[in-house]
Specification:
Blueprint lengths: L75 E2 L2 E2 L31 H4 L74 H4 L29 H4 L25
Antiparallel strand pairs: 1-2
Length: 252
């Protein structure tokens, strides 16, 4: 590839030092233990004794007595308590628990073969640690070569490109140079504004006519078979033959 295909002063070269992309194993992540200090020291090397500075103690400041403010208990002499023996009655102490020594059945000699006898080193497979996710090395898809088609080719000259823009109102044949409103820009004024307004009528809802709203019996409410029988005789009111009727309007 010619020198014109690259932009700037960068050119492909060998790495100056080891990078993580060249190693398939953790590589230099795990180093040898240090020979300096006390913590995490190399166990195969000798370690000198380490000394530390202690904290300052209170000394005799914590041993102060309250002084003569408190009275001595009775029975106390210049040499201590009175030498008269005194006895007290305590409760019976509990028996000490028996010593539970493990028997022969508590041991498993068959599990000690790897510790009691020499064996080959054994390696175990573990899951990837959390620190491995922080090393995000770019893959092959992260790099992109310059395109070989279109106007952005680095090593080749491109032909002029033309685009079709949208229609502009400036400089067009329909451009409004007068900037005046047309007939459609005015709103039609109602004739009732400048003339005498005609009467208007509205349609109301239908009103119900007044009538009797009581419940009337229908044809099914009558029993004709009950009225076909002969009526019985009943005792009426006794009338007097000498009782004259009431006459209100006397004719002339």
């Amino acid at each position: 590839m010619s020198a014109n295909a690259w932009v700037g002063s960068w050119r492909p070269h060998r790495p100056r030092g080891p990078i993580a992309a060249l190693y398939s194993s953790p590589g230099p992540k795990y180093g040898l233990p240090t020979n300096v200090g006390y913590h995490l020291h190399d166990p195969s090397r000798g370690r000198a004794p380490a000394y530390s500075f202690g904290v300052r103690v209170g000394g005799r400041l914590d041993e102060r007595s309250p002084g003569p403010a408190y009275l001595l208990p009775p029975g106390t002499t210049a040499k201590g308590k009175d030498g008269t023996p005194a006895f007290s009655i305590y409760g019976r102490p509990r028996d000490l628990p028996p010593i539970r020594t493990p028997g022969p059945g508590c041991y498993s000699p068959e599990r000690a073969s790897g510790l009691a006898f020499p064996s080959a080193p054994a390696c175990a497979l573990r899951s990837r640690t959390r620190q491995g996710t922080s090393h995000q090395t770019p893959g092959p898809a992260a790099y992109r070569l310059p395109p070989m088609l279109g106007p952005r080719v680095v090593s080749k000259s491109s032909a002029p490109n033309y685009s079709i823009p949208g229609r502009s109102n400036v400089g067009a044949f329909y451009e409004d140079l007068c900037k005046m409103p047309g007939p459609c820009s005015y709103r039609l004024v109602d004739a009732d504004v400048y003339k005498r307004r005609a009467p208007r009528y509205s349609m109301l809802a239908r009103n119900a006519l007044p009538g009797d709203t009581t419940t009337k019996p229908g044809p099914g409410a009558y029993s004709l078979e009950q009225h076909g029988q002969q009526r019985g005789l009943t005792f009426g009111i006794r009338h007097s033959d000498y009782l004259a009727p009431l006459i209100v309007d006397v004719p002339d």
